[in-house]
Description:
This protein has 3 domains: about 5-90, Orthogonal Bundle (Arc Repressor Mutant, subunit A); about 95-165 and about 270-295, D-Maltodextrin-Binding Protein, domain 2, CATH 3.40.190; about 165-265, Periplasmic binding protein-like II (D-Maltodextrin-Binding Protein, domain 2). About 45% of the residues lie in helices and about 20% in strands. It has helices at about 5-15, 20-25, 30-45, 60-90, 100-120, 130-140, 175, 185-190, 200-210, 225-235, 250-255, 280-295, and strands at about 50-55, 55-60, 95-100, 125-130, 145-150, 160-165, 165-170, 195, 220-225, 240-245, 255-260, 270-275. It has a 5-stranded mixed β-sheet with strand order 4-3-5-12-6, with helices on both faces. Helix 9 (about 200-210) links the parallel strand 8 and strand 9. Helix 1 (about 5-15) packs across helix 3. The protein is rod-shaped and about 105 Å long.
Amino acid sequence: MSNDLELYRVFYTVAKCGNISQAAEQLYISQPAVSKTIRRLETIVGITLFLRSSRGVKLTNEGDIFFEYVERAIKEISVGEEILSKLKKREHGIIKLGVSTTLCKYYLIPRLKQFISKYPDIQIKIINKTTFETIKLVEEGIIDFGLVSIPFNAGSYNYIELANLQDTFVASKEYLQPFGIIKPNEVFSKCSFMLLESDNIARKYIDQYFMNNNILVKPEIEVSNMDLLIEFAKIGLGVTVVIKDFINKELSEGSLTEILVTPQISKRTIGIISHKKVPLSIAAQTFLSFIEEKIGEY
Protein backbone atom coordinates (compact mmCIF):
# COMPACT_ATOMS: atom_id res chain seq x y z
CA MET A 1 0.00 0.00 0.00
CA SER A 2 1.21 3.49 -0.80
CA ASN A 3 1.50 6.01 2.01
CA ASP A 4 1.08 8.88 -0.47
CA LEU A 5 -2.50 10.09 -0.06
CA GLU A 6 -2.04 12.35 -3.09
CA LEU A 7 -2.14 9.24 -5.31
CA TYR A 8 -5.61 8.39 -4.06
CA ARG A 9 -6.82 11.96 -4.31
CA VAL A 10 -5.77 12.09 -7.97
CA PHE A 11 -7.34 8.67 -8.63
CA TYR A 12 -10.60 9.79 -6.99
CA THR A 13 -10.75 13.03 -8.97
CA VAL A 14 -10.03 11.35 -12.31
CA ALA A 15 -12.67 8.70 -11.61
CA LYS A 16 -15.25 11.36 -10.73
CA CYS A 17 -14.45 13.50 -13.77
CA GLY A 18 -13.94 10.67 -16.27
CA ASN A 19 -11.48 12.94 -18.00
CA ILE A 20 -7.77 13.63 -17.44
CA SER A 21 -7.88 17.28 -18.49
CA GLN A 22 -10.88 18.10 -16.28
CA ALA A 23 -9.24 16.36 -13.34
CA ALA A 24 -6.05 18.34 -13.93
CA GLU A 25 -8.03 21.59 -13.81
CA GLN A 26 -9.69 20.65 -10.53
CA LEU A 27 -6.39 19.54 -9.01
CA TYR A 28 -4.45 22.57 -10.33
CA ILE A 29 -1.74 20.37 -11.83
CA SER A 30 -0.77 19.53 -15.41
CA GLN A 31 -2.35 16.74 -17.48
CA PRO A 32 0.99 14.87 -17.79
CA ALA A 33 1.33 15.01 -13.98
CA VAL A 34 -2.13 13.47 -13.59
CA SER A 35 -1.37 10.71 -16.11
CA LYS A 36 1.97 9.99 -14.45
CA THR A 37 0.31 9.73 -11.03
CA ILE A 38 -2.31 7.28 -12.31
CA ARG A 39 0.38 5.10 -13.92
CA ARG A 40 2.35 5.14 -10.70
CA LEU A 41 -0.69 4.04 -8.67
CA GLU A 42 -1.47 1.25 -11.13
CA THR A 43 2.15 0.07 -10.84
CA ILE A 44 1.93 0.04 -7.05
CA VAL A 45 -1.35 -1.94 -6.89
CA GLY A 46 -0.39 -4.10 -9.89
CA ILE A 47 -3.77 -3.68 -11.60
CA THR A 48 -5.09 -1.52 -14.43
CA LEU A 49 -7.56 0.89 -12.92
CA PHE A 50 -8.68 2.88 -15.98
CA LEU A 51 -9.57 2.14 -19.58
CA ARG A 52 -8.37 4.97 -21.84
CA SER A 53 -10.18 6.17 -24.96
CA SER A 54 -10.41 9.29 -27.09
CA ARG A 55 -13.47 10.35 -25.10
CA GLY A 56 -11.75 10.10 -21.71
CA VAL A 57 -11.18 7.40 -19.10
CA LYS A 58 -13.41 4.82 -17.52
CA LEU A 59 -12.86 2.65 -14.47
CA THR A 60 -12.15 -1.04 -15.01
CA ASN A 61 -14.14 -3.53 -12.96
CA GLU A 62 -11.27 -3.68 -10.48
CA GLY A 63 -10.95 0.09 -10.53
CA ASP A 64 -14.67 0.43 -9.80
CA ILE A 65 -14.35 -1.78 -6.72
CA PHE A 66 -11.27 0.14 -5.58
CA PHE A 67 -13.10 3.44 -6.11
CA GLU A 68 -15.78 2.54 -3.54
CA TYR A 69 -13.18 2.26 -0.81
CA VAL A 70 -11.19 5.31 -1.88
CA GLU A 71 -14.36 7.41 -2.05
CA ARG A 72 -15.31 6.34 1.45
CA ALA A 73 -11.85 7.26 2.73
CA ILE A 74 -11.83 10.64 0.95
CA LYS A 75 -15.23 11.51 2.43
CA GLU A 76 -14.08 10.53 5.92
CA ILE A 77 -11.00 12.72 5.53
CA SER A 78 -13.23 15.60 4.41
CA VAL A 79 -15.43 15.11 7.46
CA GLY A 80 -12.35 15.06 9.66
CA GLU A 81 -11.07 18.30 8.08
CA GLU A 82 -14.47 19.90 8.61
CA ILE A 83 -14.49 18.89 12.29
CA LEU A 84 -10.96 20.25 12.72
CA SER A 85 -12.12 23.52 11.19
CA LYS A 86 -15.04 23.67 13.62
CA LEU A 87 -12.74 22.85 16.53
CA LYS A 88 -10.47 25.69 15.47
CA LYS A 89 -13.45 28.04 15.31
CA ARG A 90 -14.71 26.72 18.69
CA GLU A 91 -17.83 25.33 17.02
CA HIS A 92 -17.24 21.75 18.13
CA GLY A 93 -15.53 19.76 20.87
CA ILE A 94 -16.05 17.85 24.09
CA ILE A 95 -15.00 18.90 27.59
CA LYS A 96 -14.89 16.47 30.50
CA LEU A 97 -15.10 18.15 33.89
CA GLY A 98 -15.13 16.62 37.37
CA VAL A 99 -16.81 18.49 40.22
CA SER A 100 -18.47 17.86 43.59
CA THR A 101 -22.21 18.35 44.06
CA THR A 102 -21.81 21.52 46.13
CA LEU A 103 -19.35 23.28 43.83
CA CYS A 104 -21.37 22.21 40.81
CA LYS A 105 -24.60 23.70 42.15
CA TYR A 106 -23.31 26.91 43.67
CA TYR A 107 -20.29 27.78 41.56
CA LEU A 108 -20.27 25.92 38.23
CA ILE A 109 -23.89 25.94 37.06
CA PRO A 110 -24.31 29.75 36.97
CA ARG A 111 -21.16 30.03 34.83
CA LEU A 112 -21.98 26.94 32.78
CA LYS A 113 -25.22 28.54 31.61
CA GLN A 114 -23.28 31.51 30.26
CA PHE A 115 -20.68 29.29 28.59
CA ILE A 116 -23.30 27.15 26.83
CA SER A 117 -25.03 30.28 25.60
CA LYS A 118 -21.77 31.56 24.12
CA TYR A 119 -20.50 28.20 22.77
CA PRO A 120 -23.63 26.08 22.11
CA ASP A 121 -21.82 23.50 19.97
CA ILE A 122 -19.18 22.56 22.55
CA GLN A 123 -20.37 19.53 24.50
CA ILE A 124 -19.68 19.44 28.23
CA LYS A 125 -19.67 16.16 30.15
CA ILE A 126 -19.97 16.63 33.91
CA ILE A 127 -18.53 13.90 36.14
CA ASN A 128 -20.11 14.35 39.59
CA LYS A 129 -17.50 13.12 42.09
CA THR A 130 -15.97 14.17 45.40
CA THR A 131 -12.86 16.34 45.27
CA PHE A 132 -10.57 13.40 46.03
CA GLU A 133 -12.20 11.28 43.32
CA THR A 134 -11.97 14.19 40.88
CA ILE A 135 -8.25 14.59 41.57
CA LYS A 136 -7.74 10.90 40.77
CA LEU A 137 -9.61 11.24 37.45
CA VAL A 138 -7.39 14.18 36.49
CA GLU A 139 -4.29 12.17 37.42
CA GLU A 140 -5.46 9.25 35.24
CA GLY A 141 -6.19 11.57 32.30
CA ILE A 142 -9.88 10.58 32.23
CA ILE A 143 -11.13 14.18 32.53
CA ASP A 144 -9.75 17.50 31.26
CA PHE A 145 -10.35 19.49 34.44
CA GLY A 146 -11.33 19.20 38.04
CA LEU A 147 -13.13 21.97 39.90
CA VAL A 148 -11.87 21.38 43.42
CA SER A 149 -11.36 22.98 46.79
CA ILE A 150 -8.05 23.22 48.63
CA PRO A 151 -6.40 21.90 50.83
CA PHE A 152 -4.42 19.26 48.95
CA ASN A 153 -1.11 19.21 47.12
CA ALA A 154 -1.99 21.33 44.09
CA GLY A 155 1.70 21.70 43.22
CA SER A 156 1.66 18.51 41.15
CA TYR A 157 -1.08 19.89 38.87
CA ASN A 158 -1.73 22.95 36.78
CA TYR A 159 -3.84 24.99 39.18
CA ILE A 160 -5.77 28.22 38.65
CA GLU A 161 -7.31 29.77 41.74
CA LEU A 162 -10.86 30.94 41.09
CA ALA A 163 -12.26 32.13 44.41
CA ASN A 164 -11.87 32.21 48.19
CA LEU A 165 -14.45 30.44 50.34
CA GLN A 166 -15.40 31.23 53.92
CA ASP A 167 -16.72 28.36 56.03
CA THR A 168 -18.98 29.39 58.90
CA PHE A 169 -21.14 27.88 61.66
CA VAL A 170 -24.91 28.25 61.27
CA ALA A 171 -28.18 27.08 62.78
CA SER A 172 -31.81 28.13 62.76
CA LYS A 173 -33.08 30.77 65.21
CA GLU A 174 -35.56 28.23 66.54
CA TYR A 175 -32.79 25.78 67.39
CA LEU A 176 -30.65 28.42 69.13
CA GLN A 177 -33.49 30.08 71.07
CA PRO A 178 -33.59 27.64 74.06
CA PHE A 179 -29.88 28.22 74.70
CA GLY A 180 -30.36 31.94 75.18
CA ILE A 181 -27.36 34.14 74.44
CA ILE A 182 -24.45 31.87 73.68
CA LYS A 183 -21.01 33.25 74.42
CA PRO A 184 -18.33 32.74 71.76
CA ASN A 185 -17.31 29.08 71.49
CA GLU A 186 -19.97 27.85 73.98
CA VAL A 187 -21.68 26.47 70.91
CA PHE A 188 -19.15 23.61 70.84
CA SER A 189 -20.15 22.32 74.28
CA LYS A 190 -23.88 23.11 74.25
CA CYS A 191 -25.10 22.30 70.75
CA SER A 192 -25.52 19.24 68.57
CA PHE A 193 -23.44 19.20 65.40
CA MET A 194 -24.01 17.98 61.87
CA LEU A 195 -21.04 17.64 59.54
CA LEU A 196 -20.01 16.22 56.20
CA GLU A 197 -18.72 12.66 56.11
CA SER A 198 -15.15 12.18 57.30
CA ASP A 199 -13.70 11.41 53.85
CA ASN A 200 -14.90 14.74 52.42
CA ILE A 201 -12.14 17.30 51.81
CA ALA A 202 -14.21 20.11 53.37
CA ARG A 203 -14.76 17.96 56.47
CA LYS A 204 -11.03 17.31 56.76
CA TYR A 205 -10.49 21.08 56.65
CA ILE A 206 -12.98 21.59 59.49
CA ASP A 207 -11.48 18.71 61.49
CA GLN A 208 -8.10 20.40 61.18
CA TYR A 209 -9.63 23.61 62.51
CA PHE A 210 -11.03 21.74 65.51
CA MET A 211 -7.67 20.06 66.16
CA ASN A 212 -5.69 23.30 65.89
CA ASN A 213 -7.96 24.98 68.42
CA ASN A 214 -8.37 22.05 70.83
CA ILE A 215 -12.09 21.81 70.13
CA LEU A 216 -13.81 18.48 70.65
CA VAL A 217 -16.87 17.95 68.45
CA LYS A 218 -18.60 14.63 67.90
CA PRO A 219 -21.20 15.05 65.15
CA GLU A 220 -24.56 13.41 65.66
CA ILE A 221 -25.32 13.53 61.95
CA GLU A 222 -22.90 12.99 59.06
CA VAL A 223 -24.03 13.37 55.44
CA SER A 224 -22.48 13.27 51.96
CA ASN A 225 -23.24 16.78 50.71
CA MET A 226 -23.63 20.31 52.00
CA ASP A 227 -27.17 20.80 50.66
CA LEU A 228 -28.46 18.29 53.19
CA LEU A 229 -26.64 20.08 56.01
CA ILE A 230 -28.25 23.36 54.98
CA GLU A 231 -31.73 21.84 54.93
CA PHE A 232 -31.24 20.01 58.23
CA ALA A 233 -30.04 23.20 59.87
CA LYS A 234 -33.03 25.13 58.53
CA ILE A 235 -35.48 22.73 60.18
CA GLY A 236 -33.66 22.94 63.51
CA LEU A 237 -31.71 19.69 63.80
CA GLY A 238 -28.53 21.36 65.05
CA VAL A 239 -25.47 23.41 64.20
CA THR A 240 -23.48 22.83 61.04
CA VAL A 241 -20.61 24.25 59.01
CA VAL A 242 -21.33 25.50 55.50
CA ILE A 243 -19.80 27.84 52.96
CA LYS A 244 -21.06 31.33 53.76
CA ASP A 245 -20.88 32.51 50.15
CA PHE A 246 -23.42 29.82 49.18
CA ILE A 247 -26.09 30.67 51.80
CA ASN A 248 -26.45 34.43 51.39
CA LYS A 249 -30.15 33.99 50.65
CA GLU A 250 -30.78 31.94 53.81
CA LEU A 251 -28.87 34.42 55.95
CA SER A 252 -30.67 37.44 54.53
CA GLU A 253 -34.14 35.91 54.89
CA GLY A 254 -33.38 34.63 58.40
CA SER A 255 -33.88 30.91 57.86
CA LEU A 256 -30.28 30.46 59.05
CA THR A 257 -28.28 32.42 61.62
CA GLU A 258 -24.50 32.74 61.56
CA ILE A 259 -22.73 31.80 64.78
CA LEU A 260 -19.54 33.74 65.37
CA VAL A 261 -16.62 31.84 66.91
CA THR A 262 -13.05 32.67 67.84
CA PRO A 263 -10.88 32.22 65.91
CA GLN A 264 -12.80 32.32 62.66
CA ILE A 265 -12.22 29.46 60.25
CA SER A 266 -9.53 30.48 57.76
CA LYS A 267 -10.62 30.94 54.18
CA ARG A 268 -9.85 28.23 51.65
CA THR A 269 -9.78 28.37 47.88
CA ILE A 270 -11.42 26.65 44.96
CA GLY A 271 -9.83 26.32 41.58
CA ILE A 272 -9.40 24.42 38.35
CA ILE A 273 -6.78 21.67 38.15
CA SER A 274 -5.50 19.88 35.06
CA HIS A 275 -2.74 17.36 34.38
CA LYS A 276 0.66 18.96 33.78
CA LYS A 277 1.63 16.41 31.13
CA VAL A 278 -1.67 16.20 29.22
CA PRO A 279 -2.22 19.01 26.67
CA LEU A 280 -5.65 20.62 26.62
CA SER A 281 -7.89 20.50 23.55
CA ILE A 282 -9.01 23.75 21.91
CA ALA A 283 -12.46 23.25 23.47
CA ALA A 284 -10.91 22.79 26.91
CA GLN A 285 -8.71 25.84 26.45
CA THR A 286 -11.80 27.83 25.48
CA PHE A 287 -13.59 26.78 28.64
CA LEU A 288 -10.58 27.57 30.79
CA SER A 289 -10.26 31.06 29.31
CA PHE A 290 -13.97 31.66 29.87
CA ILE A 291 -13.81 30.59 33.52
CA GLU A 292 -10.73 32.73 34.14
CA GLU A 293 -12.72 35.76 32.96
CA LYS A 294 -15.25 35.03 35.72
CA ILE A 295 -12.73 34.91 38.57
CA GLY A 296 -14.07 36.65 41.64
CA GLU A 297 -17.72 36.52 40.53
CA TYR A 298 -20.45 34.81 42.56
